[in-house]
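Dear colleagues,

For the upcoming journal club I promised to circulate an example of a predicted protein-ligand complex. I picked one with glutathione because it came up in last month's discussion. The inputs are reproduced below in full, followed by the predicted structure.
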Amino acid sequence: MMTAHILYSFRRCPFAMRERLALGIGGVRHELREVRLSNKPAELLAASPKGTVPVLVTAEGVVLD
Ligand SMILES: N[C@@H](CCC(=O)N[C@@H](CS)C(=O)NCC(=O)O)C(=O)O
């Protein structure tokens, strides 16, 4: 089974809202990982050290931040 794309997001972030909308309209299946900006998960920082959302990690491992 193929690993899903992973979207790191923050609910009230306007950039993340646009990303969620774009993926939704495009029908791109993904796993949504809501983060707390005050306590960013290590896997988000490992993927994107600048520590902002949204960050999309594709199933192929490409990081779009
Ligand atoms: N569009 C820019 C900015 C994204 C951005 O600034 N997101 C805010 C939330 S709306 C953020 O993650 N801030 C980090 C923080 O508050 O620690 C990017 O994706 O690099």
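Two points we might discuss: Residues 10, 13, 15, 37, 51-53 surround glutathione (CB under 6 Å). The CA atoms of residues 43 and 49 lie 10 Å apart.

See you all on Thursday,
B. R.
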